[in-house]
Amino acid sequence: MSIHINAQPEEISKIVLLAGDPLRAKFIAENFLSNYKMVNHTRNAFYFTGYYKDKLVTVGASGMGCASIGIYSYELFADYNVDCIIRIGTCGAYTSELKLFDMINVMAAASESTFAKYAWGIEENVIPYQGKAFDIISETAKEINIPLLSCNIHSSDIFYRKDFNIPQVAVKNNCLAVEMEAFALFANAKYLNKTAATLLTVSDVIPTYEKLSSDQREISLLQMMNVALEATLKIQ
User: For the chain, what are the domain ranges?
Assistant: First the structure.
């Protein structure tokens, strides 16, 4: 039994979708899964397991930041023997070349975070997706005619900062957008030899101050949820 998830071992599927927000996990379960049940509520990090079509899937919350997703993804991989985690979330675009509602399949996450170094001795500050889920997500989006971009992103440890310039680690690694979790997820998967991918929707365009409204977020994230869930059907 893990420390932060109180589900029984058989209640977590081999494939997990992780959203930052527990209410987003709840939304996915209620709107996409059948015969689902809540399997974790510790710390209000809701997890639900049910069927998407004929595939058993768990959806749950990771919280915000490398430290939080680092805990949840590690326990899922190590304590529940999960094979694949797909993070689904939002990001801010560093460039106006990206538009609101654009969807990104993350190629690699660059970060100033020391998570990978001090957790696993991984010295690199850029970690790519792990395993086959990235390619399956790309193929799935193409098959269902949903536009999908692929690029590097910045996993920032900081949400608010006094310097509004794009951090050097993001510039150096040509990161087109910023979020806060993919780097730690990829680090855990790399260390444990697991599969991990990150699928993001652009919710903010930083140079132009454009932002999705709460209503727009709900509509736009439906496509991302659909792509992720359809991809799970092909992941063994």
Answer: 9-232
Lookup: tokens for 89 = 């979330």
The partner residues of 198 in beta bridges, in order of sequence, read 87
Environment class of 165 (CB within 10 Å of its CB; exposed 0-12, middle 13-18, buried 19+) = exposed
**Block residue for tokens 């680092």:** 70
Residue given tokens 């903010």 in the structure block: 204
pLDDT digits (tens, 9 = 90+) for 199-217: 999 999 999 999 988 777 7
Q: For the packed helices 22-32 and 214-232, what is the interaxial angle rounded to 10 degrees?
A: 60
Distance from C-alpha of 10 to C-alpha of 82, rounded to nearest angstrom: 11
- E strands in the chain: 15-19, 34-40, 47-52, 55-61, 84-93, 103-110, 126-128, 149-155, 175-179, 195-205, 210-211
- Closest C-alpha among 86, 84, 108, 102 to residue 18: 86
Angle at 56 between CA 52 and CA 58, to 5 degrees: 90
Which class is 9-232 in CATH?
A: alpha beta
pLDDT digits (tens, 9 = 90+) for 16-58: 999 999 999 999 999 999 999 999 998 999 999 999 999 999 9
Three-point CA angle 14, 179, 167, nearest 5°:
140
Give catalytic residue positions.
204
Strand partners for 230 = none
